[in-house]
Amino acid sequence: MWLSEGDQARLLTDPEFQFPIPTRVISNGEYTPPPQTDVQRELEARLSADADAYSRLAGLDRRRFLRSSLGLSAAFLSLNSVFGNLFNVAKAEAIDPAAARERSDRLANQFVFDGHLHFVHDDYPDPRVTGLRFAARQMGAGGLPDRRPTLDDLKFENFAKEVYLDSDTAVGIVSSATSDKPELMFLTNRQIAESVRRFNELAGSERLFGHAVFRPGQPGWLEEIEEAISEHKPISWKGYTIGDPLGPSRFAWRMDDEELVYPAYEKMQKAGINTICVHKGLLPQRYEEQLPTWQHANVDDVGKAARDWPGLNFVIYHAALRPAVMFDPAFIEVFERTGRMDWVTDLAEIPQKWGVSNVWADVGTSFGSAAISHPRLAAGMMATLVKGLGPDRVLWGTDAVWYGSPQWQIEAFRRIETPEDLRRKFGWPELGAADGPLKNAILGGNSAMLYKMTGTKTEPASVRRDRLAHYKRLYQSSGEDRSNAFYGFIHSSQRR
């Protein structure tokens, strides 16, 4: 992981934690989480007080309240009280079960396609990955986690529960990460394909799709692409231009490298698997010291590749945002004054600069991290991408299961709105209602269109009546609630 021994000594993986949204930045190991800010501490205190008050009004004990949709609504009320009115939420949704149920029922069938999911295979050998499990189980006021994290928390069964039963996610793509040590890949391409088949057999329809990871420059990498085409049938491809996202790499590459990478593009296009997802941004805090090839994480290689290969779709993961910059006063000052966000704005400007329409942004990790640390930036990022790439070129992703159930991220996006002052200053669009055209498109319609799913902008009918839908109804009727677990690293200055 991109964390030095010194970094890891300052981090925790099993703190006391009890809320339905994170109140500090959580890292999946690809970047260094900054300490909790004064504003985030204020949010944590406010949410604690609000949970006490609202749970009494709702007639629920605190633990049950915080795991319910009422508790999630209360979290957004608390966010508004600290950061300003950025999230559309009514007090009734935090105290009246009928009001919360009406909203949940209204949005339950909204098509949510998460193009950015993870879990590890059953025999994953590296125990360090348990650091990605943020043991933050909701145990009531002051409660400690009920157990320490294990590798099982990051495996198939818990992934299925937290993504498909504990959230409104209907369809998703499971991915992996490249590594200079192939044995440390979370999932091989074969394991991805086998997991996809297993899940869809259980679900009774196509609920899960898979990437095939490609590794330019590594031994046999072109042969791996041919194997994926002939045997694994991925829905799209996944690559890391920095080579290995969790450690120094000898295999960094550029998207516009005609000699190395273009032969792979030719194979992909010929096979008709023409969507290529590329990890960008999301660097460690001291990336210039730790990552000699850090330039490979920016987007200066995207425009030429997109222009040279108009038959391919290039999806840029994390919208190329570097999370640490959200806590840099200079970055925030530039954002508020000019609207620019390093690399995100550069990505959004590619269509106009290069005359292309085949560049997309996936917002996994970046939106979720910004929503709970600097929601004005989260809204501005989404508005920037919509204005520059187009409303049909922004895709939903959460990086679950690292961050637990993605429901809090889904709700954050449903509720967030671009502040009026930023809309006036920079000509940014409104994001609109939770089930309005733009949010429907970003949450699912755009991915359905990109991947040519039946029904395009509406959920495929088979998903509504498959076995998984039946299991989910039984699960919800049993009274089960989300665990509110989040997985990853936080800075140890948050120890209570």
Outline of the structure:
The protein has 496 residues and is of the alpha/beta class.
Describe the protein's architecture and organization.
This protein has 496 residues and is α/β, with parallel strands linked by helices. The chain has two domains: 5-108 and 484-494, no CATH class; 113-463, TIM Barrel (Alpha-Beta Barrel), CATH 3.20.20.140. It is 42% helix and 8% strand. The protein contains 22 helices and ten strands. The strands form two sheets. An eight-stranded parallel β-sheet has the order 2-3-4-5-6-7-8-9. Strand 3, helix 8 and strand 4 form a beta-alpha-beta unit. The longest helix has 21 residues, at 38-58.
Which characteristics define this entry?
eight-stranded parallel sheet; TIM Barrel; 496 residues; alpha/beta; disordered N terminus; two-stranded antiparallel sheet; 22 helices; single chain
